[in-house]
Design brief:
- The protein is an alpha/beta fold.
- The protein folds into 4 domains: 137 residues, Rossmann fold (3-Layer(aba) Sandwich); 132 residues, PAS domain (Beta-Lactamase), CATH 3.30.450.20; 101 residues; 148 residues, 2-Layer Sandwich (Heat Shock Protein 90).
- The strands form 4 sheets. A 5-stranded parallel β-sheet has the order 2-1-3-4-5, with helices on both faces. Strands 7-6-10-9-8 form a 5-stranded antiparallel β-sheet, sandwiched between helices. It has a 5-stranded mixed β-sheet with strand order 12-14-15-17-16, covered by helices on one side.
- β3, α3 and β4 form a beta-alpha-beta unit.
- α2 packs parallel to α3 and α9 runs antiparallel to α11.
- It starts with a strand and ends in a 20-residue tail after the last strand.
């Protein structure tokens, strides 16, 4: 497979070349986007790895040019970026890239992503091959049908003409445009009495119900010399579910060709075989499309991980603040400890000199001089200020560590990695944990107003509800242009719990209210949203057998109302409780 790499850094080019050549890929190098584009137009490149920032043409413009070109095959694109913000990653995908990797990159991760791209390209090649086979089969069938001397017409359940071969059209003296969709059993289309036409029609209608092939012979005329023998082969055409949706009528005047009945039978068998081959190729195509949908789901999961990455960046920002001043305080305390150590050393020397042998003790004048020297050293090192400042530094550092501990605990409660089971939880506490996690997204945009009611323990999937709360809170903040309010309220209504999230943002146009839960629908600018958040929210609420409603007014804000049952989804059995000794009861 040919791989084009584009980067203006020779060290990166060398590293990428070594990694890819060790995987037995053919590598073509370019030092900027324009050179990469020129190379791409000249040769057959299946995979492109490009840096974002490059002279003359950046990686995103290169992506757009590749996607707008017509090369006859698909090109898999991976963008290397030094950024990690959600909007930057989304911009990469929206410009046509299939994947991205952040600097500094791990060679093993790069290998894995290249291998994933190779699998997708192989799947695309297999899909194209199957499509070509299907088209070839259909064309061969068309050639076979048009080459037959028999008149062939296919009709639907309403007995209207769907298709006809050349022999049928020539025998009736019409073009296909003149009869397409017309009633098949119009007497003008058949050179035989109405009774014979009605007999054939009855057999055809029966096939739509029975699905059984029929062979019908109609004899027309009186004397032996005037009789004509018309043979009708009535063939059901089935869909993938096995239901008859069309009937093919193969008719021929066999008066002079009865002796050739075996040959006609062979041709019909060949026709049936061709139809079976088409159905078989259709089945293979359906399986290929299924695998493509699975690949699409994997890409969707990658996009969700980008959203989680943005959330992690906000949490990191919240943790970095206390970490910063705790680190600064520790450095200051280290300096204080060194100064205190120095003055303690002076004290120890003084005590040692005045507590020695009587004959070796200094006289009073010398003792006072040493004491004065120590006091001068204390003043020089500002020991009084140090002793006064140390408790404050320790108290401030402990507050910072408590803040970090709370964020970590809330993040753990928010995610519950590896868990997806029903639990009894406090909805108010889950909302507070989510608020703490997304606080970096909210604090500059909105004042949070909470009205929590006393709620019973709710049986739910807590980490999934946390995802719902996060989507609604982040959407509310993004709907506020400068500064506003987000109002959160909870209450119990019978055996259900209501959670509402309201904002004073821009509001949603009335014509969009019925579409906001559709996948990939978004009114946000390009790079600001994927249209997946509310669809995920809707599906999670429905999984809990709950409901979600929205009310909005332009210029005044939006309110999302969620209602879920206290006892959880009724279709699933309750989790077994445990006694105090840990035994399930």
């Amino acid at each position: 497979m040919n791989v084009l790499i584009a980067d203006d850094n020779d060290l990166v080019l060398d590293l990428l070349s070594d990694i890819l050549e060790n995987l037995n890929y053919t590598v073509v190098r370019a030092r900027d986007g324009q050179e990469a584009w020129d190379i791409y137009q000249k040769g057959s490149v299946q995979l492109v790895i490009t840096d974002w920032a490059m002279p003359r043409m950046n990686g995103l413009e290169l992506c757009r040019k590749i996607r707008s070109s017509d090369t006859g095959h698909y090109t898999y694109i991976i963008v290397i970026t030094g950024g990690g913000q959600k909007n930057e990653l989304l911009e990469i995908l929206q410009c046509g890239a299939d994947d991205y990797i952040k600097k500094p990159f791990d060679p093993k991760e790069l290998q894995a992503r290249v291998k994933a791209g190779e699998r997708i390209l192989l799947l695309e090649q297999e899909h194209n091959s199957l499509q070509r086979t299907l088209i070839e089969s259909r064309n061969k069938l068309r050639v076979v049908l048009d080459s037959l001397p028999e008149e062939i017409v296919s009709i639907d359940a309403n007995c209207c003409i769907v298709s006809a071969n050349n022999a049928f059209l020539k025998g009736k003296g019409v073009s296909f445009d003149q009869i397409a969709g017309a009633p098949c059993f119009d007497p003008r289309h058949w050179n035989m009495p109405a009774v014979n036409i009605a007999n054939v029609q009855n057999h055809v209608l029966d096939i739509f119900h029975s699905g059984v092939i029929r062979f019908v012979y109609e004899t027309i005329g009186g004397s032996d010399r005037e009789k004509r023998h018309i043979e009708f082969h009535l063939l059901p055409i089935r869909d993938d579910s096995g239901n008859v949706y069309q009937v093919a009528i193969v008719s021929k005047d066999i008066t002079e060709y009865l002796q050739r009945s075996e040959q006609i039978k062979s041709l019909n068998q060949e026709l049936q075989k061709a139809l079976d081959q088409v159905q078989e190729k259709n089945s293979e195509l359906v399986e290929t499309l299924k695998r493509l949908k699975e690949t699409q789901s994997q890409i969707l999961q990658t996009e969700k991980m980008a959203s989680i990455g943005q959330l992690a960046a906000g949490v990191a920002h919240e943790i970095n603040n206390p970490v910063g001043f705790v680190s600064s305080n520790l450095k200051t305390l280290t300096d204080y400890q060194q100064n205190i150590g120095r003055i303690i050393s002076e004290y120890r020397q003084f005590i040692g000199s005045v507590s020695g042998e009587k004959d070796s003790r200094p006289d009073m004048a010398a003792t006072e001089a040493m004491a004065a020297q120590i006091r001068e050293k204390e003043s020089e090192l500002d020991i009084a200020y140090i002793l006064e400042d140390i408790p404050g530094l320790i108290h401030e550092s402990r507050e910072g560590m408590d803040r970090i501990k709370k964020i970590v605990l809330d993040l753990k409660d928010f995610s519950h990695p590896g868990e997806d089971v029903l639990k009894l939880v406090n909805i108010n506490q889950n909302m507070d944990s989510t608020l703490n996690i997304v606080w970096n997204e909210l604090k500059y945009k909105a004042t949070i107003i909470k009205e929590y009611a006393e709620l019973p323990q709710v049986r739910c999937y807590p980490q999934q509800l946390n995802q719902v709360f996060m989507n609604l809170l982040v959407n509310a903040a993004q709907a506020i242009e400068k500064q506003g309010e987000i109002h959160i309220a909870t209450r119990q209504v019978g055996d259900q719990v209501d959670i509402t999230v309201s904002d004073t943002g821009q509001g949603i146009p009335k014509e969009n209210l019925t579409r906001i839960f559709d996948p990939f629908f978004t009114t946000k600018p390009v790079g600001k949203g994927t249209g997946l958040g509310l669809n995920v929210t809707y599906n999670i609420v429905k999984k809990h057998e709950g409901s979600i409603n929205v009310q909005s007014e332009l210029g005044k804000g939006t309110t999302f109302s969620i209602r879920i049952p206290v006892n959880g989804p009724s279709a699933l059995p309750p989790e077994p409780e445990k006694s105090s000794n840990g035994v399930k009861i």
